[in-house]
Amino acid sequence: MALSAHFLTSAATLAQCPADDEPEVAFVGRSNAGKSSALNRLAGARRLARVSKTPGRTRLINFFAVAGGGRLVDLPGYGYANASKDSRQRWSKAIDDYLSHRASLAAVVLIMDARRPFQPFDEQLLDWAQAAGKPLVILLNKCDKLRHGARLTAERAVAARVAALEDAVAVPFSAVTGLGADAATAQIAAFLATGDAETEA
Question: Is 107 left (phi over 0), alpha (psi -120 to 50) or beta?
Fold first, then answer.
């Protein structure tokens, strides 16, 4: 199962975003967490979102229209990027403005590297989602890079952390193998269909 989507437009600022009139699910994560690869896997398209080995290549807010209604939104990655300080500050403002003021934002998908979960930005996003009352889907990406025992340890740690949150669910995930793709797709499709679906533990 995959979401069928196509590129719609890009925006550098909130004012350049499309009309705020359809439910949107935003993808966020640290640079190099595999955000664009995860989006491509869920959309069933290898080149929907640009993927690069260089962290920080997503520098605009990218919108993808989903067949049947709604949009997927790829936000610039937080953290390292081979760009000037001024450029990184502009991206940060664009992300903050989108998350804070986009009325059609139905849910947030946080991509974390399973080998390094709960980095400072991840914790900030968790706090923001709780304060804003936004449903959150955590994709524990790159599980394929962990040995079985290490993967189980990471999954348990994340599950324990998420259990204390409201409207949050964690999904072990691999953009490479497709692990967790069906579960994540079902969650996202529900948000797009209703604009405010409840996450399932």
Answer: beta
What is the per-residue pLDDT across 127-178, written as a single tens digit (0 to 9) for each? 999 999 999 999 999 999 999 999 999 999 999 999 999 999 999 999 999 9
Beta strand extents in the chain (DSSP E only): 5-11, 24-29, 61-66, 71-74, 105-113, 136-141, 168-172
Residue type, 33: A
- Strand order through the sheet with 24-29: 5-11, 61-66, 71-74, 24-29, 105-113, 136-141, 168-172
Q: How confident is the model at residue 197 (pLDDT cuts 50, 70, 90)?
A: very low
Of 190 and 53, the structure prediction assigns the larger pLDDT to 190
Backbone angles phi, psi at 145, to 5 degrees: -90, 0
Tokens standing for residue 21:
């009139």
**Domains contained in the chain, CATH given:** 5-194 (3.40.50.300)
Q: How far is residue 101 from each of residues 4, 10, 11, 64, measured CA to CA in Å?
A: 27, 17, 15, 19
Query: What would the pLDDT profile of 103-128 be if each residue is shown by its tens digit?
Result: 999 999 999 999 999 988 899 889 99
Residue 54 has pLDDT above 50, yes or no: no
Q: How many residues does the chain have?
A: 201
What interhelical angle do 181-194 and 35-43 show, nearest 10?
80
> Average pLDDT, stretch 12-39?
91
